[in-house]
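Quick question: what would this complex look like in 3D?
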Amino acid sequence: MQRREVAVAQNTPSPQALEEISQFFRLLGEPTRLQLLCKLRQGPLDVASLIQATGFSQSHISRQLGQLQRAGLVTSERDGVRLLYRAEGQLVDDLCLLVQTRLRQRLEAQLESLAVA
Amino acid sequence: MQRREVAVAQNTPSPQALEEISQFFRLLGEPTRLQLLCKLRQGPLDVASLIQATGFSQSHISRQLGQLQRAGLVTSERDGVRLLYRAEGQLVDDLCLLVQTRLRQRLEAQLESLAVA
DNA sequence: GTGCTGTATGACGATAGACGCATTCTGCAT
DNA sequence: ATGCAGAATGCGTCTATCGTCATACAGCAC
């Protein structure tokens, strides 16, 4: 049932699937969260380290991590009194690389059109 | 200069690049815009057709198309009194496919864990 | 040039969500 | 069991943006 709703697309996602896909993108659409993911992809970190690395408050970082964890993009593991968070999987890396490549191509095209003019 | 700011990442995007990448994801994080992109990828459409297809108001659709156009994801072309909008490139398709696949995998994993239990 | 249609934009209200302070909760260390 | 540190959550404020109605603008058709 759920499977069918999500999977109905040979090519065109169902309205329900579109909603879920867009919510996924929305997660990545916030710089704070993307920044956290970048930090965590380099290795596990506790909240204090992330506070230091980003400058955001403990509560804010905790909340963002909660969102990322519920979406399956990060996991946490106890290390003494601390929780170590780590990035899970390669999907976000892949997505960012595609977008970044595209953004660069676009800038390069613009540079070229300026040079010609 | 701009090139370097965006391109600095062998692997870790610069803060500026992260901002731009997140803004790109933010564009896709709104169901309306994603829906429009899906419609337009099947062929060029005018605003009236998009109104009919989605149920949103003319002004809203026009505004969303404006955003997508400025980001280079759609183009427009005059056809008599109408403007035909069309989706540009495959990037959004690729991104959606990656995300959709992942969402499915996640659901399937959850189904499996329920079956075992 | 004029009138009309299709589209873009102004103005407004409602809502979601970022963000930080304060507090509570959780689990470790003793 | 107790105390403490680290993390999660309550609450309030602020901002951005969705979405619509109304209006302005752009370009076609005559």
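Answer marked as accepted. Residues 46-48, 58-59, 61-63, 65-66, 81-83 of chain A lie near DNA strand D (CB under 10 Å from a C1').
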